[in-house]
Specification:
Strand content of chain B: 15-25%
Number of helices of chain A: 14
Distance between the termini of chain A: 17 Å
Strand order of the largest sheet of chain A: 2-1-5
Radius of gyration of chain B: 24 Å
Largest sheet of chain B: 8 strands, mixed
Shape of chain B: globular
Order of helices and strands of chain A: HHHEEHHHHHHHHEEHHHE
CATH topology of the largest domain in chain B: 2-enoyl-CoA Hydratase, Chain A, domain 1
Helix content of chain B: 40-55%
Number of domains of chain A: 1
CATH architecture of the largest domain in chain B: Alpha-Beta Complex
Strand content of chain A: 5-15%
Structural class of chain A: mainly alpha
Distance between the termini of chain B: 33 Å
Strand order of the largest sheet of chain B: 13-14-15-16-17-18-20-23
Number of strands of chain B: 23
Number of helices of chain B: 23
Radius of gyration of chain A: 23 Å
Helix content of chain A: 40-55%
Largest interface: A-B, 15 and 15 residues
Oligomer: heterodimer
CATH architecture of chain A: Orthogonal Bundle
CATH class of the largest domain in chain B: Alpha Beta
Shape of chain A: globular
CATH superfamily of the largest domain in chain B: 2-enoyl-CoA Hydratase, Chain A, domain 1
Structural class of chain B: alpha/beta
Amino acid sequence: MLDLINVSYDTLIPNNVGLSTDKRVLKALEKWHPGYINWWNDLIPDNFQKSLVYLRTAVSVDPKGWAKFDYVKMPEYRWGILLAPQVEGRTIPCGEHAGQPAWQEVPGEYRNMLKRLIVIQGDTEPASVEQQRFLGRTAPSLYDMRNLFQVNVEEGRHLWAMVYLLHKYFGADGREEADDLLLRQSGSDEAPRMLGAFNEETPDWLSFFMFTYFTDRDGKMQLESLAQSGFDPLSRTCRFMLTEEAHHMFVGETGVGRTIERTCQIMAENGIDDPYDIEKIRSFGVIDLPTIQKKLNLHYTLSLDLFGQEVSTNAANAFNSGVKGRYMESRIDDDHKLTNATYPVWDMVDGKLVRHEVPALTAINMRLRDDYSRDAAGGVGRWNKIIEKAGIAFEMKLPHEAFNRKIGVFANHTFNPEGNHISVAEFDKGVDEWLPNKADGDYIQSLMNPVYEPGVYASWIAPPKVGIDNKPGDFEYVKLHMA
Amino acid sequence: MSKIIDFRTDPSKYRHWRVEYAGEVATLYMDVDENAGLFEGYQLKLNSYDLGVDIELNDVVQRMRFEHPEVKVVVMKSGKDKVFCAGANIRMLGGASHAHKVNFCKFTNETRNTFEAAEADSGQRYMAAIKGACAGGGYELALACNYIMLTDDSSSNVSLPEVPLLAVLPGTGGLTRVTDKRKVRRDLADVFCSVEEGVKGKRAVDWRLVDEAVPNSKFDAVVTERAQEFAAGMTAKASSGIALGPLARSISENGSVAYSLVEAQVDRTSRRVTITLHGPDRPVPASTEALVAEGDQSWMLRLAREFEDLILHLRLNELEVGLWSFRTQGDPEAVLAHEAFLLANKDHWLANEILHYWKRTMKRVDVTSRSIATLVEHGSCFAGPLAELIWAGDRSYMMEDEFEGDNRPLAAIRLSEGNFGAYPMGNDITRLQTRFLAEPEHVEALKTQIGETLEADSARELGLVTYAFDDIDWEDEIRIFMEERVSFSPDAMTGMEANLRFAGPETMETRIFGRLTAWQNWIFIRPNATGPDGALQRYGTGVRGDYSMQRV
C-alpha cells in the first residue's frame, strides 16, 4: 500500500527537477497528490488496481535508457516529473521575440495565455483515461490490456507533468487550476472536460485503437508545437512527453493493423473475396473492412475538429508571442515571424470549397492541421499494405477534411467523404455507409469479450508480431488479481 | 520635455502671483509674467497661464492654509488692467504633448478643487473680483471661487469660448460647475458656452453666472465690503500659522527619489516604481502647542508634503513608469498614536489642516493615472491613514505567515476611527464604503475591528486585501502580476482604473474628473482640435480649424 503520510517524494517521484530542494513545489504537490490517487483509484475497476501489470516506468531522460520494465500495481506506479535536458543557449524560436533567450520563468505578459494552454493540454490527459476506464473488462488479450494500462499511466504522468508546471510557475492560480483538473470528469454533466472529443466514452477496443491513432496524434501535434515554446520549461516537458506519446500511436496503429490483418486472414481462410460481403465476414467473428473504414472516418474527423478554427486570432497571438511554435519550427526555412507570409486556407464561397491565401499568422491552426493530416496518412498506407498482401481489393482512405465537421468553415455544411458539397438529404441517405451506425456499434460490442489467458487473442484481432520488451508470445503481461 | 518639472516653490520665487495680507482678508493678485513660461515657444500674454503659473497658485493656496490661518477670505483679482485672466495659454496647448495637456488639466483641476474646498475644510472663502475679460480657464478660476463679483463696465465679461474658438472644452471643470455649482439653466448654459464673447453685467447675474454685478465706480469698495462681511461671519481660528520650509529631496540618475520619510525606487526599464512611506520618526506631540512648535516637521505633515511632491513629480516627469507599488515600514502603533492625537484635536486649526491635507493627498492618489498596487509586507505600518493606501490601490498583496530569514513583525493591518470618515474620496464616501458598496453593514462591522492587529488571514477574510501569499508564493506572484500589468496598453489601464476606482455616488468632483476629462481627452486627440489643420494649430491665423463634419 502507498504510504500517504510519509511520502518520500524523492524516491516515489522520479524527477530531474530537483524536487527535494524545491520546497515550494514540494508542498504544492504534497497537497495535490492524495487527490490524484483518489482520482486514480475511483477510476479503474478495483481488481485491476490490485493486478500486477508489466509496465515501463520513465526513470531518466537519457534516450538510451529512459525507461525500465517491471511488474507494478498501477496505483503504485512512479509518476515521474521529467523534463528533457536544458539546451544551452536556447532562444525563442518564433514570433516577435524570436532570437531572444528562451524564458526560464513565466513572462508576466503571457502568463494567462500560457496557463490556458497548459490547462487545456493538462485537461486532455486524464480525460482519455476516464474515457477508457471500462476497457480493461473487455480486453482482447493480456498484451492489449497491458498496452491500455501503459497508455493510461502515461497519460497520468502527462497530467503530472502539466500539474508540475502549474505548481511551479503559476502560484496560487496554478494550484487552483491543478485541483480543477481532477474536478472535471469526462462526460460529466456538472463539470465536463474542456474539449468535446474528450467527453465521449470509448465504448470498444476498435474505438480505443482509433482514438490512440487519430486523437492522440492531435495530442502529439499540440505537444510538438508546445515543444517549440519560448517558455523553456514547457518546451522541455513536452519534448519528453513526445517520447512516450510515440508508444500510444504505436498501440493505435498496430491495434487497427492487427484488426485488419485478422479480417483479411479470415476472408482468405474462408474464400471470401468481396470485402462488402459483410454478413458473411461478420459470421466469423471479425470486423469487416468497410466498418473499419467507417470508424476511421469518424475518429479522423472528430480529431480534425480539435484543431479549432482554420483562421484563429488565439493561435496567431500564441505564435507571435513565442508561446507556441509550429510543427518542427526550427526546420522551417522562413523568418519565423510570418510578418508578410500567407497560407492557403479553406473557405466556403457561394457554396463552393475554395482555398485562398490569408496572413499566415492567423492560419497557424490550419497549418498544424495540414501537418497532422500528412502525419496521419502514413499509418493508413501501412494498413493498406496488409490488405494488399492478402490480395483483397479494398483501400482504406482518409476522408476529405470537409466531411463530418462540427468546427471551422465546414461546420453546418454537408459533404461526402470525397469532399463534394451535398444536400442534407443526400447526406442522410449516405451516412450509414460513411459513419458507423448503432448496428455497427452493437456488432463490435458483441465481439468485446475478455480474453485473460496468456498468449491467447480474441477472435477479431491478430497477435502482435513482437512482444513488449521482447517478451515471448505467451508472456503474462498482466497478473490479474481477481477478487 | 527633458527638464524636470519641479512642483516645489515659495513666494520668493513667484513670477505670476502676489498676495497682500491684511488681517482676515487676503488679496491674491494674478499678474502673470508673460516671459516666464515654463517652456520655450510661447508668451503668457493677457494673464494666460501654463503649468508653471498653476504650480505657484497651488503653493499659494497651500501656504494660505498653513502659514496664514488668520485669513478668512481670499479675494482673487487681476494685477493687469484690462483682463482678469484669458485662461490656459493656447500656444502652450498647441505645442504640448498629449500627455502634458492631460497632466496639466489634472493638476489645475486639483488646484481648483482645493481652493474651492478651502471654505468648508479650512474656513477660508475664496471670492473672485472680476474686472476685464474673464475667459475660459479664467472664468474657471472664478467658478471655483465660492462667490463671484463682476464689474458692470459694459465690457467686462465672463465667457467659456473654448468650443467656438478652439474646438476643445473648458478643461478645468467649467461645464460641470456652470450646471452643478452655479446651477445655470441648461439651455442658457448651452448659449453661454457657444458664444465667444461671453456674457456681461446684469445678464450674467440673471443667468447665475456670477453672484453680483457692481457698477464700475463702486466696484473696489463693494468688493472690500463683501470681503469684510464674509469674514465677519466666519469664526476665527488662529492669529498666526507655521512656516512651510523648503522640501529637501534628492533625485538620482536612475530617477529614484528620496525625502526624509518617503523614498521612491524607480526602475525605468521595467516601468515600475516602489514607493516606501516610513512610519513616525518622532514621538506624538504632547499638546497642540507642541504640534505648532514642531511646525512643518511633525510626522504626518512632513509625510504628506513629501508624498504629495513625489506624486506630482512622478506623474509629470516619469510618464512611462506605469506601475506604482506602495509599501510602508515602521511602527503601526506609532502611526495610530499620531493620527489619534490629530483626531482628538481636530478642532485645533493645525490638526485639522493636517488631516485635510492627508485627505487631499490621498485624493491625488485616487486620480493618478498609474496602476497602483499596495504591498503589505512584514514590518509595515498600514494603520489608520496609511491603511488608506491599501484601498486606494487597484490591488493589494499581503504577506502571510513568517518568511524565511525575515524577522520583521508579521504583516498586519490596523483600522482606526480615521478610516471611517476622515479621508473621504472624491465621491464623498470613504474608501471602505466605496470598497464595500454592496455591504454597508460590513463597513459597520469593521468598526468593531478598530485597533485590532489584522494579520493576513483576517485581512483576507474581511476583504481588506486582494491576495495574501506566503513565503513560497510571494515573490513569484508579485513579479508575474507586475510584468503582466506593465504589458497592458497604458491607455486601456488608465481608462479601466479610472472606471473601477470611483464606485458609488457621483459628486461634482467625480464628474469633473470623470466626465469632463474623459471627453476633453478624447477631443484632445481628435484632428478637429489638434490635427495640423485643427483649431488649436490655426488659432490666431484668422482661419478657422478644418473640421471633419461627422458626428461621432
